[in-house]
Design goal:
Layout lengths: L4 H9 L5 H13 L4 H14 L2 H20 L4 H6 L3 H9 L4 H17 L4 H11 L21 H31 L9 H91 L30 H4 L18 H4 L22 E2 L2 E2 L25 H11 L13 H10 L4
Antiparallel strand pairs: 1-2
Helix pairs in contact: 1-3, 2-4, 3-4, 3-6, 4-6, 4-7, 6-8, 7-8, 8-9, 9-10
């Protein structure tokens, strides 16, 4: 089917809510994308003349065409829909039931998420369907998301967007009518018809002129608001730059003063250390005989406790008597000089195993006077191994060894032990 206005109107009239019908009409429209501007105008006109349910179907059709064009990277219909999409959406939204309005809102939200239209057009669409609460909360919206400094610019920007959309639509319509009426290839109509068409074209041109004038006025107001905001920010910038310069100078001054104070403290400590070192060096030699010749001299090493135990003399009480002699003295007892010849039974008595007088054991002489003193057998006075300990130790030795003076040494032994000892001693 060839593209004509009647063909487009017939397609739009036959459109229903099914997905198949919407996709079929959308493919036919996209096939004739050369007439995208005319199709957009006819779609807007048809939407205004239709009821609420039919308007929702037309919004679905525009959504399908726009998304398919975006996916195929064909901007013909995107550019054609931008001037009329805000008015078409607001027309379909006003007077519709709550259910239809929620469906239109979902379509508009999809456009925002997928970025089908430019930001300004998207914001205009949201502002037209709900001026106080536009979808998405964009920067230039009347919602509370905008800062207080930008609130005056929000309304100005919305006015510019509305005027721009209206200007595009009216200008395009006036230009199309002007081209048709002034086309030299077409036959001129009768004077009354020609006069009527000229009158209609005049109205279209006047409407487009008025729309452009409103757009210029709104844009100038927006520029004035932006210039005021710019001047205010410039003044604030100059003020902040001055504050920054002053704070930087103060910081540098305080930093230099802090370093000066710290250097003075360090110089004072160094002087005190030098004075203390010189005073310590003038005190003469230390306990170990070494003097402090310079500040870099090593400090005195700590004293440690010796591991060698102290001598016994240091542990002896002060009032203890001094030992008389270091020589071991054996008491001279008359009973040791007489040696028995035989016991009571008439048997000869062998010499004793130990004779204190002779210093012999088993016939072996142990006369200590004949043994040269060596370090092993030398006795020192007061040492733990010394046998001399004064009169007290001498009396103790007499008491211990006094019983060995006389009598038979084997008298108290058993006969077998006595015979064995006699046999070992040679029969004595």
């Amino acid at each position: 089917m060839a593209y004509t206005d009647d063909a487009v109107k017939a397609k739009l009239s036959a459109l229903n809510e099914t997905q198949e019908s919407i996709v079929t009409v959308a493919q036919w429209i996209m096939f004739h994308r050369r007439h995208a501007d005319r199709t957009a105008s006819l779609l807007l006109q048809r939407l205004k003349d239709s009821g609420a349910n039919k308007r929702l179907n037309l919004i679905y059709l525009a959504n399908e065409v726009a998304q398919q064009s975006k996916a195929r990277q064909k901007t013909d219909f995107i550019d054609a829909f931008e001037p009329v999409i805000a008015e078409a959406t607001s027309t379909a939204y006003r007077g519709a039931t709550n259910e239809v309005q929620q469906k239109i809102r979902r379509v508009v939200e999809v456009w925002r998420q997928r970025q089908i239209f430019e930001t300004s057009i998207q914001e205009l669409v949201e502002a037209r369907i709900d001026g106080k609460k536009p979808l998405g909360g964009s920067l230039f919206s009347s919602g509370s998301a905008a800062p207080s400094e930008l609130q005056p610019l929000v309304s100005l920007h919305i006015a510019v967007a509305k005027a721009s959309a209206t200007t595009v639509t009216t200008t395009q319509t006036a230009n199309n009518e002007y081209e048709k009426l002034t086309d030299p290839s077409k036959t001129a109509p009768s004077p009354p018809v020609h006069a009527a068409r000229l009158s209609a074209l005049l109205k279209s041109l006047a409407s487009a002129e008025g729309a452009v004038s409103e757009s210029i006025k709104a844009r100038r107001a927006l520029l004035e608001g932006l210039e005021k905001l710019l001047d205010s920010n410039k003044k604030s910038l100059e003020k902040e730059q001055g504050q920054h310069f002053e704070l930087t100078n103060r910081k540098n001054t305080i930093d230099a003063k802090k370093r000066e104070v710290e250097d003075g403290i360090m110089r004072g400590l160094s002087a005190e250390e030098a004075t203390a070192t010189m005073s310590a060096g003038n005190m003469g030699p230390t306990a170990n005989g070494a003097g402090h010749d310079s500040a870099s001299a090593e400090p005195e090493r700590p004293r440690h406790e010796e591991l060698t135990p102290p001598p016994v003399e240091s542990l002896t009480p002060t009032a203890s008597p001094r030992p008389a002699s270091s020589t071991f003295t054996i008491p001279q007892d008359a009973s040791y000089s007489k040696q028995p010849d035989a016991d009571a039974r008439g048997a000869p008595v062998p010499p004793p195993l130990f004779s204190p007088r002779a210093g012999a054991v088993n016939g072996i002489s142990h006369d200590t006077s004949r043994i040269a003193p060596t370090p092993s057998n030398r006795q020192y006075s007061g040492s733990p191994g010394s046998m001399s300990g004064g009169p007290t130790k001498k009396r103790k030795l007499e008491e211990d060894f006094g019983g060995f003076g006389g009598g038979d040494a084997m008298a108290d032994l058993d006969d077998d032990v006595a015979d064995l000892l006699r046999a070992e001693s040679g029969g004595h």
